[in-house]
Amino acid sequence: MSEANLTKLFIDNFTKSKIQNKLPKLFRIAEIESSRANKIGMEVGSLREKIIGGLLIHKFGEENVDTDIPTTEPEIDVKVNGKGVSIKTITGNGGVKAVWTVDAKSSRKFIKNYNPKCDIILVQVWWSKNKDSFFLIPIKVQKEIFNLLGRKKYLKMPKAGTNPRGVEFSKEAIKQMIEHEETLKISINWVKDDIKYDVYKRWVDRWND
After folding, report:
1. 134-165 pLDDT tens trace
2. Which residues lie closer than 8 Å to 185 by C-beta, 6 or more apart?
3. Which end of the chain is more exposed for a tag (fewer CB within 10 A), N or C?
4. What domains, with CATH codes, occur in the chain?
5. Long-range contacts of range 42-50, CB-CB < 8 Å, 24 or more positions apart?
6. Torsion angle of the four alpha carbons 66, 67, 70, 76, in this order, in degrees rounded to the nearest 10
7. What is the pLDDT of residue 31?
8. Which CA distances in Å does 209 have to 199, 200, 202, 206?
9. Which helix (H) or strand (E) holds 50?
10. Which residues does 24 contact at the CB level (< 8 Å), separation at least 6?
11. Calpha distance 179→181 (Å, rounded)
12. Comparing 43-47, 68-72, 77-81, which segment has the lowest mean pLDDT?
């Protein structure tokens, strides 16, 4: 089961320490790579997702992690031993997307048909703070909170007239899920190092090959 495998990220002290030490640096590089004029672009989310995907491959082996998920799959980002996993990353208390959609009609359809379908790895970025930040929210916990709150309180419909491009989990749903006793968590000290990183170097090197 994917949940049994994913728990190794949290109970293996070597892996846990590696996450605590490396994740702030790697997420900082993701911010630098996706920034223009000191403003971070939306693509930072995709880069963070790839960093977590890389962690899963590093831990469980390339043969056990499938990252080639069709874009038509709205929730699953990777599969570990054939079991789907959704990867979510946010900064602070920002909204956590349940799904990216293009319009209100798609959002309503998603909410109407939604049921939790896979484990979630959630990373909250808290620069200059030391907090619980790396979570595994099992599907069992999601279903419990979903049934407790109900569909309309679990998911947040985008405001009319806006273009948020997605349906979010409610703040209450996220709060209850990450505080649940069966949710696994790792605390991280989010030190924002002054990293010297040239976003063009690897491409220049390719041209120089």
Report:
1. 999 999 999 999 999 999 899 987 776 665 67
2. 10, 132, 133, 134, 135, 136, 178
3. C
4. 2-208 (3.40.600.30)
5. 45/89, 48/87, 48/89, 48/123, 49/77, 49/87, 49/89
6. 90
7. 94
8. 17, 14, 11, 5
9. helix 44-60
10. 188, 189, 190, 191, 192, 193
11. 6
12. 68-72
Residue with tokens 């703040």: 171
At 101, is the pLDDT very low, low, confident or very high (cuts 50, 70, 90)?
confident
Q: Which residues contact 40 (CB under 8 A, 6 or more apart)?
A: 31, 34
The amino acid that residue 23 corresponds to is: L
Q: Is the pLDDT of residue 63 over 70?
A: yes
- Contact between 142 and 116 (Cβ < 8 Å): yes
Percent of the chain having pLDDT more than 70?
95
Model pTM?
A: 0.91
C-beta of residue 40 within 8 angstroms of C-beta of residue 34? yes
Mean pLDDT of 36-64: 92
pLDDT band at 4 (very low <50, low <70, confident <90, very high): very low
Q: Give the residue from 124, 143, 142 showing the smallest Cα distance to 185.
A: 124
Kindly list the distances between the CA atom of residue 202 and the CA atoms of 33, 51, 54, 71, 206, in Å, as whole numbers in the listed order: 12, 17, 18, 27, 6
